[in-house]
């Protein structure tokens, strides 16, 4: 018994050591970007240690004010929030339909939707989306661009369908007896119970859209006022005179990383718990 206890204790500590090492390796690039963002461009080019010889805090103020990063930050928040909200709304309705409704071709349609999760359609559908967005005038405002970005609902449908199935049909059957319509059962009964998985998927989708680069880049070609942070950060490579402005690029990168990093650190338990409710119970 004592040997078994010692082995379990050793394995527990070994697990923590491995996780700690992985966490440190993952954070090393972020730490480097953080300290390097306070260096001058000349010091970055000539090389040096991790800590700056002279701390240049003006990198952040220059990026935020003079290079219009305040607008890019606002655009990123709007784009990621609306895109995530639309994906959550469409995924919740689709998942409920697949979990509670029987119709011809349901199995085939479900397989096709989930199959999209394993196929990269981004490059294939980028030009058609851009053409439709231009024709419909969606590229004129950051509030309408997310309408053209609505795609890839396979993961949300899969998670919501599994979650709704785990609830059982008794509540729906009782609501039907009380005369509740199909849509009323969804909005009044099932949707409030979806709160945990909805919060989880919204956060995951928000992070994905926040880091989206190609789609916002293409959509902002004719309207620079709709650029997001990811587009603005990449453009900083050409801001220097004769050389890349690495100090501004790193400062802009930290501005784009910090919000997502903070959200994930604060809400990582909710993300893991919501995924478990949607996948394991289903």
Strand elements, count: 0
Terminus-to-terminus distance:
38 Å
Measured on Cα atoms, how large is the radius of gyration?
Answer: 24 Å
Shape: flat
Strand fraction equals under 5%
Mean pLDDT: 82
Major sheet: none
Class in CATH? Mainly Alpha
- Label the structural class: mainly alpha
CATH superfamily: MetI-like
Q: Examine the coordinates and then state which fold CATH places here, giving the name of the CATH topology.
A: MetI-like fold
* Element-level helix/strand string: HHHHHHHHHHHHHH
**How many independent structural domains?**
1
Share of helix, binned: over 70%
Which residues sit in consecutive blocks of at least 5 with pLDDT less than 50? Answer: none
CATH architecture annotation: Orthogonal Bundle
The total count of helices amounts to 14
Family: Belongs to the binding-protein-dependent transport system permease family.
Pfam families: BPD_transp_1
Main location: membrane
Organism: Paenibacillus ferrarius
